Amino acid sequence: MRLFHSPGSPYARIARMAVIELGLEDRVVAEEATLRDPSSVLLPHNPVGRVPTLVLDDGTAITETTAVLTMLDSLVEPARRLLPGPEKPRALAAYGRVLGALDGIAVWNRELRRPEHERSPGVIALEALRAVRVTDALEQEAARGGFAARDAGWFALVSLLGYCERRHTAFAWRQGRPALAALFDAAQARPAVARTVPPTGMGSAAPPLR
Ligand SMILES: N[C@@H](CCC(=O)N[C@@H](CS)C(=O)NCC(=O)O)C(=O)O
Questions:
Q1: With bands split at pLDDT 50, 70 and 90, how would you rate the model's confidence at 202?
Q2: Which domain of life does the protein's organism represent (predicted)?
Q3: Domain 2-80: which CATH class?
Q4: Ligand 1 atom 12: the closest Cα is on which residue?
Q5: What is the residue-averaged pLDDT of the chain?
Q6: From the CA of 53, how far away is ligand 1's center (Å)?
Q7: Hey, which of 26, 65, 170, 190 has its CA 20 to 30 A from 161?
Q8: What's the 145 CA to ligand 1 centre distance in angstroms?
Q9: H-helix or E-strand containing 140?
């Protein structure tokens, strides 16, 4: 199997961390792909052109982080799976919240990468407010002992914060959020985290947006 990714993508990082955490590196080879590029190695497999994309040995290309995690989880025994099932609604809710926060921050980041005169102050204000609102809720969850399990929500949270830390520094996420900061700092020792730290700089491996 091949996992297409881009080193700066927080979505792809969740899948890359899952491959390492689940011990699947001998079965899933990570391959870098350029984004928003008509000659990207990814496009012949996946017309959507987004990472992560998991290409199975029969050529089936699975796109979208949650679908990729579902496939990766299916390769290990149930007790080791990362995605919470419906029997764990709180963990499932936490995972969804983190992904929702990531979607908003990705929109904010893309807006900031436009030439200044093309940016929408309204979109930036909306997404900045959403980011503050959701990360404040995540801080409360973490302070109450949430995110204790190393599940998909935990990896998504680490990826979200890592993206803000290194690629979306417009968001001062640490300010007033000691529980998230402590969780994030402690997470850096985990091999799946340490081995997938994104490069600094804005956006992903893609040309500026217009
Ligand atoms: N909803 C998707 C989002 C994935 C996504 O937006 N990936 C970005 C990189 S961070 C991408 O591939 N962008 C390329 C493009 O938009 O063409 C998921 O959950 O996987």
A1: confident
A2: Bacteria
A3: alpha beta
A4: 50
A5: 95
A6: 9
A7: 26
A8: 30
A9: helix 121-143
